[in-house]
């Protein structure tokens, strides 16, 4: 078990996929036990050290999808902690499934409307006092002076608050990439790796809605940031491209200025 811990310390990004999968697996196991289950039972069933299982259980408790409770064991001894799934919580994924089908009869129609909804969502987020304060604070803390960098930083912060676990890579060299009309354009690019998705299962089932909405959100946030910074750098256009599920639990957003 020490070897596994050392590997996690040395390669934290490499293990995110495995940790997310294990956490979902543990959550499903808790849901399968109607009367609750303790960490020792879960560790035995899943084949992990009990400390690792408790780490994931604590994270699930923080997310509000399970709760802790105690029960007295036969005989003497301290009460043991059990974990119960929160069944009464609203499952928004069911609502998303219904809404997805109401967006249109074809995948193309649903994608177009979802992307438009994502842009409108971005407008609401940008207009909120919390978002404006976060954008100002992030920009001042990082001492970002250039419009494109400010826009990228703002988008990354918003996606972080939404639970996407974004990882912004180092500055990329000027590259050629396809534009909306498939013509190659040259510009600067930042890559944002999204290691988590709050609606992953829904996005897998309906990528034309879930992923298109997130693309529209990206585009809307960048458009607003571009407009705010246009007074200083009007000649630069900022665009976004989303590559959904390039790995089972990884999406890649490419933010470009050209």
From TrEMBL:
Residues 125-138 have a biased composition (Polar residues). Residues 1-20, 118-142 are annotated as: Disordered. Residues 22-73 form the Helix-turn-helix type domain. This is Transcriptional regulator. It holds the Pfam family HTH_11.
């Amino acid at each position: 078990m020490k070897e596994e811990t050392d590997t996690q310390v040395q390669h934290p990004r490499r293990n995110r996929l495995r940790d997310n999968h294990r956490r979902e697996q543990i959550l499903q196991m808790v849901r399968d036990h109607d009367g609750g289950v303790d960490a020792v039972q879960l560790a035995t069933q899943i084949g992990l050290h009990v400390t690792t299982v408790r780490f994931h259980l604590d994270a699930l408790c923080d997310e509000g999808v399970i709760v802790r409770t105690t029960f007295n064991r036969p005989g003497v001894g301290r009460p043991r902690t059990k974990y119960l799934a929160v069944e009464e919580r609203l499952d928004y994924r069911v609502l998303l499934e219904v809404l997805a089908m109401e967006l249109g009869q074809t995948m193309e129609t649903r994608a177009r409307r979802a992307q438009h909804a994502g842009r409108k969502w971005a407008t609401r987020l940008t207009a909120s006092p919390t978002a404006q304060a976060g954008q100002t604070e992030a920009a001042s803390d990082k001492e970002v002076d250039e419009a494109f960098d400010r826009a990228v930083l703002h988008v990354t912060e918003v996606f972080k608050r939404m639970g996407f676990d974004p990882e912004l890579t180092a500055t990329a060299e000027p590259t050629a990439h396809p534009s909306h009309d498939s013509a190659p354009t040259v510009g600067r690019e930042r890559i944002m790796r999204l290691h988590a998705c709050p609606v992953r299962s829904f996005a897998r089932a309906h990528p034309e809605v879930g992923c298109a909405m997130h693309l529209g959100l990206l585009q809307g946030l960048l458009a607003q940031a571009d407009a705010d910074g246009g007074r200083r750098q009007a000649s630069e256009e900022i665009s976004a491209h989303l590559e959904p599920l390039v790995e089972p639990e990884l999406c890649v957003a490419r933010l470009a200025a050209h």
